[in-house]
Design brief:
CATH class of the largest domain: Alpha Beta
CATH superfamily of the largest domain: Nucleotide-binding domain of ferredoxin-NADP reductase (FNR) module
Strand order of the largest sheet: 6-3-9-1-2-8-7
CATH topology of the largest domain: Rossmann fold
Number of domains: 3
Helix content: 10-25%
Radius of gyration: 18 Å
Distance between the termini: 31 Å
Strand content: 35-45%
C-alpha cells in the first residue's frame, strides 16, 4: 500500500513519558497493524527563526493506533527530526507518506506479544485490533528503566496478563524480556508470537519460537531512507525491509544470516550488532 505524500495537521499530542510523545493526525487510507509512515518535519525551531528541514530527511515511524480516521504515531526523541517534532504543537503541520509496508497476520486464539522499548508501538496497534477480534492477549514488555514505560494503562485494559521487565529492576521484574519467556507462559497454549524491539532481543525470541515450533512474526527496525524499495539502505539478505517488510515471519528470518548479526548505518556502512 503506497499513498502520495501529503501535508497533514497535528490534531492532538499526548505526552507518554519524558522522551516519547504520540502525535495524532488524520489520514485517508486505513492502516493495518504493522504498517508505518514516512514522516517529514518541514522546519525546526531555531533560537530566533525557523530552520528548514529537507524532505530527504524523512524518517520511518510505526503506526501505534488507528481510530475514527486518525492514526497515532508514538515518537521517541532520538535525533534531529524527532527533536524538531517534539517542539511541535496541535495545529502545526507535518508531511506524511503512507501507510507503507506489509502487516501482521493475526493467527490463533491466544497470542503473545514480546516488546522492547519503543518497539511496543506497532504491537500495541496489533493488540488493539486482536482484542477487538476476540483474541486473548498476553504481553511481556521490557525497557531499561521505569521512566521509559508508555501505554501501560492501555495495555492493562486489553491484556489477559502483562509482565513488565526493567534492566535496572526499577519496575516489576529485573532483567530482559527474553529471560521470562519460558518461566511465565505455558508455550503449548500460545498460538502465535509477535515481537518488535532491539534486534538482538528479537533474535532470541526467534530462536525460542523456532525451538517451540510456534508461529511468530517480527517487525524489523532497519535504516529506512526512501520507503519505496529504491535505495537499499534497509536491505537484509536481499530483502528490502521498507517494502518486503517491515514484518517478517520466523520461517523467513531463520534463513537470514544478517539478522541479529549486522545492519547498515546511515552512511551505508555495515555495523555489527
Amino acid at each position: 500500500m503506497i499513498s502520495n505524500p501529503r501535508i497533514v495537521e497535528i490534531e492532538r499530542i499526548k505526552k507518554e513519558n519524558d522522551d516519547i510523545k504520540t502525535f495524532f493526525v488524520r489520514i485517508e487510507d486505513k492502516p493495518e497493524p504493522g504498517n508505518y509512515v514516512m514522516l517529514w518535519v518541514p522546519w525546526s525551531k531555531g533560537k530566533s527563526k525557523r530552520i528548514a528541514i529537507e524532505p530527504s530527511d524523512q524518517i520511518p515511524i510505526s503506526i501505534s493506533s488507528f481510530k475514527r480516521g486518525k492514526i497515532g504515531l508514538s515518537v521517541k526523541n532520538v535525533g534531529e527530526t524527532t527533536n524538531a517534532l517534539h517542539d511541535f504543537e496541535p495545529g502545526d503541520r507535518i508531511g506524511i507518506t503512507g501507510p507503507l509496508g506489509n502487516s501482521f497476520n493475526i493467527r490463533g486464539k491466544k497470542i503473545l506479544i514480546v516488546a522492547g522499548s519503543v518497539g511496543l508501538s506497532p504491537l500495541y496497534f496489533l493488540s488493539r485490533v486482536a482484542s477487538e477480534m476476540g483474541k486473548q492477549i498476553y504481553v511481556i514488555y521490557g525497557v531499561n528503566s521505569k521512566t521509559e514505560l508508555f501505554l501501560i494503562k492501555e495495555l492493562e485494559k486489553i491484556a489477559e496478563d502483562l509482565i513488565i521487565t526493567t534492566d535496572d529492576g526499577s519496575y516489576q521484574k529485573k532483567g530482559c524480556v527474553t529471560d521470562f519467556l519460558s518461566d511465565f507462559y505455558d508455550i503449548s497454549k500460545i498460538d502465535s508470537i509477535y515481537s518488535c524491539g532491539p534486534e538482538l532481543m528479537m533474535k532470541k525470541v526467534l530462536d525460542f519460537s523456532l525451538k517451540k515450533n510456534v508461529f511468530s512474526q517480527f517487525s524489523l527496525d532497519r535504516y529506512i531512507r526512501c520507503g519505496v524499495g529504491l535505495c537499499g539502505f534497509c536491505a537484509i539478505d536481499g530483502c528490502r525491509v521498507c517494502k518486503d517488510g517491515p514484518v517478517f515471519t520466523s520461517e523467513q528470518l531463520k534463513g537470514f544470516g544478517e539478522f541479529g548479526v549486522v545492519k547498515r548505518s546511515k552512511s551505508g556502512g555495515v555495523l555489527r550488532l
